[in-house]
Write a structure and sequence with these properties.
The protein has helices spanning about 10-20, 200-205, 215-225, 255-260, 275-280, 290-310, 330-345, 355-360, 380-390, and strands spanning about 30-40, 55-60, 65-75, 80-90, 105, 115-120, 125, 130-135, 140-145, 160-165, 170-175, 180-185, 190-200, 230-240, 270-275, 310-315, 350, 360, 365. It is an alpha+beta fold. The chain has two domains: about 50-180; about 190-395, Rossmann fold (3-Layer(aba) Sandwich). Helix 3 crosses helix 9.
Length: about 400
């Protein structure tokens, strides 16, 4: 068995365990599991390209430290059954890219087996891999499929590559949603685990930093700089095009709570930023027009689900979008009414004023010019970082 290359300070104490103990031995140690990275599953369309049998490599940055790791592989929104032949974890060979370091590959198992069938709608959890992992560490997860795949074409912030099956596979960069949906670590100290939940603005659309990935990535950077006893892990479960009340891209926020929040081990907080797609895609008037009260009721339903599991929900105000393609003055009034209700403090357990962090002081219904990439909806990389800086860390204690 080959061991993963980790910093000497972390590897020395556990090198004997890594070399001599099987991966499933991790379950015998004391510790709690906590989410360290996430990418919510989303459906693919008939226009998305089918990939032949082959291997995906995902470069993942961990937001929690621990002495063991587990992977979640998901076909939750797939249209066909899939077959996975092998999954492995390795160290990257450089500061960027998906090449792996020599002699660093460790095969993962699932219920004791290297491969498995992944039915439509199914999600599987790996056996634990015992090894030391640190906050901010990048790992390369490789997933080899024996069947063709059709992943969704909305990779909004993940360095990854694909190689068709063959004797000498050649990996090339690819931008699709991963089949890897969650990475968890076992830790003796996890004060909190935060799930960032929302649409494309949370997912990381237009983010120039693939390993940071949107405002949740910036939040993770800030938390990683704190003393170990105050750090929280961050799991990004945003989906571009998602809505609160109705299916949009993927099922509604209310329905995917159980899949993308409740399933995250150790989750203590959710930062919730969603609703602009409900407003923008709604009708101007008539029975299909969305009211502020309807959206607020949806928020309350989400909070009720979270509170039933002891999870706190911090609500984010929706960012300005008046001149986005699907908005209008009437819809902008709905957005403002909902934001006013959020700020009143009687919906969520806390509030992050994302709108204030990125709005134009001279025109509050619009993004600041330096944060607007031109679509008047998605903050650019600088705007996403400003949003990550707007989270009051005391809300997470």
């Amino acid at each position: 068995m080959r061991n993963i290359r980790f910093p000497v300070a972390f590897s020395a104490a556990l090198c004997g365990l890594i070399l001599t103990a099987p991966a499933h031995a991790a379950s015998a140690s004391v510790g709690a599991w906590a989410g360290a990275w996430g990418y919510a599953p989303a459906d693919s369309g008939s226009g998305d390209a089918e990939q032949p049998a082959g291997t995906y490599r995902y470069r993942v940055r961990l937001s929690q430290a621990g002495d063991a790791l587990q992977l979640t592989i998901s076909n939750a929104e797939g249209a066909t059954p899939l077959a996975v032949s092998t999954v492995s974890v390795a160290s990257p060979s450089g500061a960027a890219g998906t090449d792996v370091a020599a002699d660093s590959i460790h095969a993962m198992s699932f219920s004791g087996k290297p491969g498995f069938a992944l039915a439509k709608g199914q999600t599987l959890l790996s056996d634990p891999l015992a090894a030391p992992f640190r906050v901010g560490q990048d790992v390369i997860v490789s997933v080899t499929f024996a069947t063709p795949t059709r992943p969704g074409q909305t990779n909004l912030g993940l360095e990854m590559a694909f190689a068709p099956a063959g004797t000498s596979p050649v990996f090339t960069p690819i931008k699709v949603r991963p089949y890897l949906s969650l990475v968890s670590v076992r830790t003796s100290r996890a004060p909190c685990t935060v799930v960032a939940f929302g649409d494309s603005i949370t997912d990381g659309f237009l983010d120039a930093s693939p390993q940071t990935r949107g405002w949740p990535g910036r939040l993770a950077e800030r938390l990683a700089a704190l003393p170990a006893a105050q750090r929280c892990g961050v799991v990004n479960m945003g989906i571009s095009g998602n809505r609160v009340l109705k299916p949009g891209r993927s099922t509604s926020a209310l329905d995917r709570f159980w899949r993308d929040v409740a399933s995250v081990p150790g989750v203590t907080h959710v930062i919730f930023l969603e609703g602009i797609n409900d407003i923008g895609n709604g009708a101007e008037q008539g029975p299909d027009a969305l009211t502020a009260d309807q959206l607020i009721q949806g928020y309350r339903q989400f909070v009720t689900r979270a509170h039933a599991l002891g999870i706190k929900v911090i609500g984010g105000t929706m960012t300005p979008a008046l001149h986005a393609g699907y908005m209008s003055p009437a819809k902008e009034k709905t957005r403002q009414a909902v934001n006013t209700a959020i700020r009143a403090g009687n919906i969520f357990d806390g509030v992050v004023d994302f709108e204030a962090a990125v709005r134009n002081p001279a025109s509050p219904s619009d993004l600041r010019p330096e944060f607007d990439p031109g679509d008047h909806l998605h903050p650019n990389d600088a705007g996403l970082r400003a949003m990550g800086d707007a989270v009051n860390l005391s809300l997470l204690r």
